Amino acid sequence: MVNDFDTIAAIATAVSNAGIGIIRISGQDSLKILSEIFLPFDKNKDAGHLDNYRIYYGNIVDYDDIIDECIVLIMKGPHSYTREDVVEIDCHGGVSVVYRILNLVISHGARPAEPGEFTKRAFLNGRIDLSQAEAVMDVIDSRNETARRNSMAQLKGSLSDKIHQIRSEVLYQMAFIESALDDPEHFSLEGYPQILLQYVDKWVSETDKLLNSYDDGRFIAEGIRTCIVGKPNAGKSSFLNALLGEDRAIVTDVAGTTRDTLEETITVDGITLNVIDTAGIRNSADQIERIGVEKAKREMELADLILFVADSSMPLEKEDIDILKDIQNRKKMILLNKSDVLEDSKDEYRQIYDYIGETDPVISISAKYHQGIDDFISELKNMMFHGKIDSNQEIFITNVRHKNALDDALSSFQCVRRSIEENMPEDFFTIDLMNAYEKLGVIIGEAVEEDLVNQIFSKFCTGK
Ligand code: GDP
């Protein structure tokens, strides 16, 4: 059923001078409003009787005043974005043109749409669920190809399908327990707890898998906070430049010139790195440099990944060792730089293996000559996404709201498991199963409070 909402309108494109601007109208008066302001060029067409799923060419007029030459798109509900009658007016993308048309539409009875209100209607009218509605915004906000692909999969229902599957299995088991308790003659609960236990274990592992994807999901959506460390002149700025493919950082031969931190967002091969290039971490008498050193240490604490750049053309020094000790327990990659200077830089630098973990990847690079960058990227994918990033099958959770709901569902499943192990009566199971069922429902927007829905959609852009 489509709710009986009023008619809303908004500019759906960015408001700046551009080739095309789009004004979107949704609601039961959309077509009526259009008929009052649109004159098709085809004299055989009556603006009051335009066909569905057609595009018409004509003028938008305010009585005698021709405002712009446009094409209009007719999408009658329920097969439209909002499930209501939707009209889109494609006009020239000038700021005054789009505002004039929007105001005209409003003066004919539409109301200015709130942020995200079109998508909110798609949700409230049951065309998409809440996780899909959130994915719409994620597609718009995606910073890289991987984030876009993940958001698109969520929009198509990858997460919703998984949630629906677990919920329907939970519902079935709850119904079985209820029936057996009501009608013990026909349904026996003999040996049932062991069967339920197998289901619970399966749900726990499925929920766990989704939860475990959250870190990867966050790295995909927001980027990996990456800190580049190493002694002065090791080649940190050169490495950053090699990644950036342009000369942003200062590269010099004088030790300690990269005094402040420098942040860059770099997207390489579908992965976004929020790279912080730090001042060389070392003890310095120079006050400005000392501030840089302190800041670098703070940044290091916050990083998801540390890239240790070493000058492998010279023996390992105390400065290197001090930094390696500082980052001993961190997720890190070792970049043996200046591989062009020594043929087998790893041999010269073998002592470094005494200070790094067995699983820490070690890559030979030449930042100056842009060598080893591909190896670095493939190791990065391996390390941060366990090779899963290129798979289209994987569902990555990127939304903290979903993560919290999954956390709650997981605890409820664990409570069911405990009740089974402690031989509790069957009606105890249903209480926690119901909790898990409801928590999973929060993800897809079932029985969620109106405030939460409003809060979610308020983060959207106007016109979406
Ligand atoms: P940072 O202090 O760690 O940021 O080091 P820089 O990136 O400023 O590099 C210090 C010096 O090492 C510069 O003269 C660079 O040109 C040089 N350098 C950096 N990477 C390489 C490399 O891969 N090979 C060679 N031969 N020199 C490099």
Outline the structure in words.
Helix content is 45%, strand content 17%. The chain has 464 residues and is α/β, with parallel strands linked by helices. Helix 7 (192-222) packs antiparallel against helix 13 (400-421) and helix 13 packs antiparallel against helix 14. The chain is flat. The two termini are 22 Å apart. The site of guanosine-5'-diphosphate has 20 residues, from helix 8.
Structure characteristics:
binds guanosine-5'-diphosphate, six-stranded mixed sheet, 464 residues
Q: Count the helices. How many?
A: 15
Question: Largest sheet, if any?
Answer: 7 strands, mixed
**Percent range of helical residues:** 40-55%
- The amount of beta strand, in percent, is 15-25%
Distance between the termini: 22 Å
Q: What coarse outline follows from CA principal-axis ratios?
A: flat
Could you provide a short overview of the structure?
The protein has helices at residues 30-37, 95-107, 117-124, 130-141, 145-156, 158-182, 192-222, 236-244, 287-302, 318-326, 345-348, 373-385, 400-421, 426-444, 450-458, and strands at residues 8-11, 18-26, 38-40, 55-62, 65-75, 86-93, 111-112, 224-229, 262-268, 271-277, 305-311, 332-337, 362-364.
How are the secondary structure elements laid out?
Elements: E1 8-11, E2 18-26, H1 30-37, E3 38-40, E4 55-62, E5 65-75, E6 86-93, H2 95-107, E7 111-112, H3 117-124, H4 130-141, H5 145-156, H6 158-182, H7 192-222, E8 224-229, H8 236-244, E9 262-268, E10 271-277, H9 287-302, E11 305-311, H10 318-326, E12 332-337, H11 345-348, E13 362-364, H12 373-385, H13 400-421, H14 426-444, H15 450-458
Parallel strand pairs: 1-7, 8-10, 8-11, 11-12, 12-13
Antiparallel strand pairs: 1-2, 2-6, 3-4, 4-5, 5-6, 9-10
Helix pairs in contact: 4-5, 6-7, 6-14, 7-13, 13-14
The structure holds guanosine-5'-diphosphate.
